[in-house]
Design brief:
Length: 119
C-alpha cells in the first residue's frame, strides 16, 4: 500500500487493488520514510493513533479493506505498552492496512502535529 500525504488527507489504496493483494511497505509522498515495525516504533504509534481516534482528530473514509484489517487486529498490552497483532501467527485475516495506518499517522503527526487526517 502506498500512502500519499497531502495537506489534509491520506489517500487509501487505489480501486485496482483487490482485498487479497499483497501490500508493499508504506511510503509517504515520493520519498520513502523508514519505519521499522519494532516495539519501540509501533507502541507509541499505536497509542498515538488510538488517541487521535478517541479525540476525533482522524477520520475514516469508510474504505471496507481498512475497516476489515482494523477489525482483524487484536490489541496486546505488555510492559512496553500497547500494540496490535494478528489473532494467530498464521491467520489469513490480514492486518496490513491497520499497521500502515499506524505507521502513516505516526509519521504524519511527526511532520505536522496539528494536521487533521482523513483515511
Amino acid at each position: 500500500m502506498r500512502v500519499r500525504l497531502r495537506r489534509s488527507r491520506v489517500q487509501p489504496p487505489g480501486p485496482t487493488e483487490s482485498a487479497n493483494s499483497t501490500y508493499p511497505p508504506c511510503s509517504l509522498s515520493s520519498a520513502s520514510t523508514k519505519f521499522p515495525q519494532s516495539p519501540q516504533r509501533m507502541t507509541p504509534g499505536t497509542a498515538g493513533l488510538y488517541e487521535a481516534v478517541v479525540n476525533s482528530t482522524v477520520t475514516h473514509s469508510g474504505d471496507p479493506r481498512l475497516a476489515r484489517h482494523v477489525a482483524n487486529a487484536r490489541v496486546r498490552t505488555d510492559n512496553r505498552g500497547i500494540r496490535i497483532y494478528k489473532e494467530q501467527q498464521h491467520s489469513t485475516r490480514r492486518i496490513d492496512l491497520a499497521v500502515c495506518a499506524i505507521m502513516a499517522h505516526s509519521v504524519a503527526a511527526t511532520v505536522d502535529p496539528g494536521l487533521q487526517l482523513y483515511w
